[in-house]
Amino acid sequence: MRPARFLAPLALALAACSDAVAPGGGDLLERLNALPGVTATEIPSHYGYPRQFALDITQPVDHDRPNGPTFTQRAYLSHADEDLPMVFGPNGYGATEESWEELAFILQCNGVYVTHRYFPGSRPQPTDWRYLDIRQAAADHHRIVVLLEAIYPGPWVSAGSSKSGMTALFHRRFWPDDVDATVAYVAPLMFDVEDERFLPWLAARLARPIARAQVTDLDAVPGDVVVNATGLGARILAGDPTVTGLAGQVVVTAPGDADLTVSLADDRDPDAMFYAIPRLDSLVLGGSAVAAAGDEPPPEDAALTARILADAARFGLHPGPVLAVRRGLRPFRPTVRLERTGRILHCYGHGGAGYTLCLGCVEDLAAQV
Ligand SMILES: Cc1cc2nc3c(=O)[nH]c(=O)nc-3n(C[C@H](O)[C@H](O)[C@H](O)COP(=O)(O)OP(=O)(O)OC[C@H]3O[C@@H](n4cnc5c(N)ncnc54)[C@H](O)[C@@H]3O)c2cc1C
User: Fold this and answer.
1) 73 vs 118, 124, 143, 187, CA distance in Å?
2) What is the pTM of this model?
3) Best mutation site among 355, 357, 359, 365 for ligand 1, i.e. most ligand atoms within 8 A of its Cβ?
4) Model confidence pLDDT, tens digit, residues 235-285
5) Which residues pair with 227 in a beta bridge?
6) Do 136 and 207 fall into the same domain?
7) How many domains does the chain have?
């Protein structure tokens, strides 16, 4: 939502301190352009700011190799006055000339909003996805702070919501002295891992590092053999409309008095299934399986959690406190697709049994290579 109600007060407050010529010698535009690796362009201003600039900032793709390949990162500077604080928006997404943070209006001060690396307008070419991580992004943000602090020496406050809130926290975590305060309005950090032991164990056995990238064309993926194990993503990637999402919700609890050598399942009624799967130090209670449209699971259902816990009691279980409620989409297909077409090996559609079936499927795949 646009901050329309701030327009008038901000314009009035800033009119008094607006300066066409920045103190310290030279026009502000010239001084911005004199910063190393910065190309500044003055653009029409918004929200009553006296001046606004688009900044194209040269950044190393890999901050560990400052003399290696570079890319251009886009940021937008809303200038009020050099002596005023700076609100720093290290966005988790793309920034635009209309980007703003509430804090800048509350503090009636400057703002700078950065397009996150790899978002359109700030993407290295060629695009090597290995360098899209929070440490490299934080290093981008550090460099921007260091550059602009030369002009804006006052207090700096970072702010953001959602992924932008996370990004502000990540920047602060790596460069704690860059800003005087951080206001992460919302920072939906995920501490849960779907399975805390199995996936890290599997990953540790790989002979080669994992590289993350979105695949849009299987035929364009290099290699003698390509395994397509994209779960629900195979619907589009393999053009397979028989893949659908089955939403599920489980409740993870402390063991309570449960015997952790015993698992329990009652799937007589598919609309009210119940299972209790013990782990080393917790109990996974389920569950549900509901056809879902789209690629995101539905929101957490408190009534379903209550039903699962009531079922546990009905089966004589007395689980400990609820540790987490987890939701997900099972990549369902009437049958698992495990077949080779040319150099593509398809392996998807395991529905609610992917963990159970994975080792057997891998053996079958290996036999086809
Ligand atoms: C609530 C719930 C409970 C479950 N309980 C059990 C259980 O007790 N036992 C059991 O065996 N299974 C269980 N499952 C099912 C299990 O989680 C799945 O079967 C399994 O995760 C499927 O594995 P997969 O690798 O095929 O797909 P996924 O785990 O979905 O992995 C596919 C990967 O491909 C990536 N991808 C997709 N499209 C693209 C693209 N275009 N480019 C690049 N990457 C892409 C995705 O980001 C994802 O990382 C449960 C699932 C849910 C939701």
Assistant:
1) 9, 9, 11, 23
2) 0.55
3) 355
4) 999 999 999 999 999 999 999 988 887 788 888 888 889 999 988 889 999
5) 345
6) no
7) 2
